[in-house]
Amino acid sequence: MECVKCSKIIEDRDLYCGYCGVNQSKFIKYINKVEDKIHKDRDKNYNNNVKNAQWKLKKLEQDKQAEIVRITNNRWQSTGNNFSYNMTEGKIMINGQVYIFSDINGAEINAITGFRTITNTTGKNNQKSKKHISLGGAVAGALINPLGAVIGGSVLGKTTTTGDYNHITTSNDIPICHHIGVLINLNGFNTEIILLSNTVDQKSSIYNCTINNAQDIVDTLRRFSTTPISKKWLNPEEEQSVLDFDPQIEEAAKELQKVINSKPNYDIPKSYYK
To answer: Residue-wise over 184-204: b if at least 16 C-beta within 10 A, else e?
Structure first.
């Protein structure tokens, strides 16, 4: 084992150190007494001071990071349809992917439309009628500037009525829409922002709002495609409100180190070395 005073290696069974003569058992007895009673409160206070200093430093670092996130988020404006834009940095985000304004080559509305046929039959006898919904609609034109909106057409469905004579059949064709999106050409590759993926009547408020929203997105992309990208803007971490945290963090780090260095050092009374 190691001598408690001179740190020389001695035999485990040695009561006294052969180099410095210190009583090993007496010293160990004192150490146990110190740890169990005398310095318990001081050690607890030291540990609490270290934890408080660590918490202060960590809190400042978290506040700095939160300020960076706040500035970053405030630069992005979202339409709520997987489309966001950042005017400060000249960027757009489409379906989670980030592009710059100059990547935009074209955009247009992609609407798949059709009709649903309602048939009413009146007469003396029972008749049966079949209702058909026609599908169709395709965007015409290529994705080139100037950016514009194109809505696809559709083909009417067929209605068949069976039964006895002496009856009158009337049919009404109701325009519907199955899909609305905005097709965007980004550096020669097409991507789509999907705004509507279920069937609605073209006279409904949902259809009108979605078409207007799609047109707003197309108009916004048209404006961005000709907007020069600023070459002078600060990264979020370079903003002054973020830099203001640096001296506070530096001071907190110094305080933490000072607290760590203040760990109690208990001297052994010389009488225990005799």
So the answer is: bbbeeeebebebbeeebebee
pTM over 0.90: no
pLDDT tens-place string over residues 228-244: 887 888 999 999 999 99
List C-alpha distances in Å: 49 to 29, 46, 58, 62, 254: 29, 5, 14, 20, 14
- Beta bridge partners, 120, equal 170
Please write the tens of the pLDDT for every residue from 172-203: 788 999 999 999 999 999 999 999 999 999 99
Write out the two tokens for 223. Answer: 């404006």
Please, what is the average pLDDT of the chain?
81
**Alpha-carbon Rg of the chain, whole angstroms?**
40
Of residues 127, 130, 120, the one with CA closest to residue 166: 127
Q: What is the pLDDT of residues 46-88, one digit of tens each?
A: 999 999 999 999 999 999 999 999 999 999 998 878 899 999 9
**CB neighbour class for 244 (10 Å; exposed up to 12, middle 13-18, buried from 19):** exposed
* Pairing of the two strands 189-196 and 167-186: antiparallel
Find out whether the peptide bond into 228 is cis, omega within 30 degrees of 0. Answer: no
Instruction: For residue 222, give both structure tokens.
Output: 């048209």
Among 110, 97, 114, 178, which residue's Cα sits nearest to residue 142?
110
Q: Quick check: 217 and 137 in contact, CB under 8 A?
A: no
Q: Write the Ramachandran bin of 201: left for phi over 0, alpha for psi from -120 to 50, otherwise beta.
A: beta
